[in-house]
Amino acid sequence: MRAGYADIAQHGSERRESSCCCGMSAVAADGLAKHIGYTAEELAELPAGANIGLSCGNPGAMAALQPGEVLLDLGSGAGFDAFIAGPKVGPTGRVIGVDMTAEMLARARKNIAAYRERTGLDNIEFRLGEIEHLPVADASVDVIISNCVINLSPDKPQVWREMARVLKPGGRVAVSDLALLKPLPAPVAEMVEALVGCVAGAVLVSETDQMARDAGLAEIRLNPKPGYVAAMVEGNDPLYQKVIEHLPKGSSPEDFITSLEVTARKPACQCCCG
C-alpha cells in the first residue's frame, strides 16, 4: 500500500487510469473535487500538483474552520486539504499534515514555497508519521480532518483513540471516508485492488460510530453521501468496474459502498461529561 501511494506521489495524474488507489480514476481530479463540494476558486488557488484525485468528500468544509485554530490533517498526501485549510485558519492558526509516505511528504513540502508566495502565510507543515501513532502532542489540536484515509488503516480503533488523544477538550473531528452499508461479497473483500482502493478496508457505518464512541468522542453525526460512488461508476473507474464483476447479479457498488461524512467532538469536560 505504501508503495502504491509512493508511485502516485511521484507520477501523479498520469497514472490515473492504471492505478487502483483511492480516487485515482478516469474522472478528472478537479472534476471529481467539484462534484464532492470543492469550489472552483479553491481549486484554482492550489499549488500545482496538490490535487491528485484522492478525495471522497470535503472534510474542511464540514469542519467550519475558524481563524486561529490548529488543524491536523490525517493522511495529508500531496497537501490538497491542508493548502485549502491554511488561509481559513489564517496567520494565527496552524495546519499540520501527517502522512506515512515520504514521497507524498516531499511533494507536499515542495509546494509550501508556492503557497507562501501566493498567500503570504507561513502556517503549514508536513510531518512523517502513521495515523495510528500520531507525531502530535496530547490535547494540542482544535480540529482534525481526514479525507478517504482511515479505511486504509489496519487498526482503525487505534486511529480514533489517537484522534481523541491529540484533540483539545471541546475539539472536533470532520472525516470523509468510505464506509459499507452492508458487508461486501467475499470475492470483493479479498481483492488486493479493493484493499488499496479504499473499498475492502472500509467498515460498516455502525462500526465507525462505535469506534468513535469507544474513543470517548461525543456528538457523533454520520451522513452517507452516495454521490461519490456513483461518480466512480459513471466515470468507468477501473477498480469499480472490477468490483461490479464480482457483485451479485442486479446489484451495484452503491448498494454496498458509500462516502460517509463523520463529525464528532471531544467532550469539553472529561471528568463530568464523558
Explained architecture:
There is one protein chain. The protein is built from 14 helices and 7 strands. By secondary structure, it is an alpha/beta fold. It has a single domain (2-267), classed as Vaccinia Virus protein VP39 (Rossmann fold). A 7-stranded mixed sheet has the order 3-2-1-4-5-7-6, with helices on both faces. α5 links the parallel β1 (70-74) and β2 (94-99). α1 packs parallel to α6. Residues 13-21 and 23-27 have low confidence and may be disordered.
What is the annotated CATH architecture? 3-Layer(aba) Sandwich
Number of strands: 7
In which range does the helix fraction lie?
A: 25-40%
SSE string: HHHHEHEHHEEHEHHHEHHEH
Could you give a short account of the major beta sheet? 7 strands, mixed
CATH homologous superfamily heading: Vaccinia Virus protein VP39
Approximate shape: globular
- Quickly give the structural class: alpha/beta
Q: What does the radius of gyration come to?
A: 18 Å
- Pick out the low-confidence regions: 13-21, 23-27
**How many discrete domains?**
1
Widest β-sheet, arrangement of strands: 3-2-1-4-5-7-6
Secondary-structure topology with pairs:
Blueprint: H1 2-11, H2 29-35, H3 40-44, H4 59-63, E1 70-74, H5 80-89, E2 94-99, H6 102-110, H7 112-119, E3 124-128, E4 141-147, H8 156-166, E5 167-180, H9 186-189, H10 192-196, H11 205-214, E6 218-225, H12 227-234, H13 238-245, E7 257-265, H14 270-273
Parallel strand pairs: 1-2, 1-4, 2-3, 4-5
Antiparallel strand pairs: 5-7, 6-7
Question: In a nutshell, what does this entry contain?
Answer:
This protein has helices spanning 2-11, 29-35, 40-44, 59-63, 80-89, 102-110, 112-119, 156-166, 186-189, 192-196, 205-214, 227-234, 238-245, 270-273; strands at residues 70-74, 94-99, 124-128, 141-147, 167-180, 218-225, 257-265. The chain has 274 residues and is of the alpha/beta class.
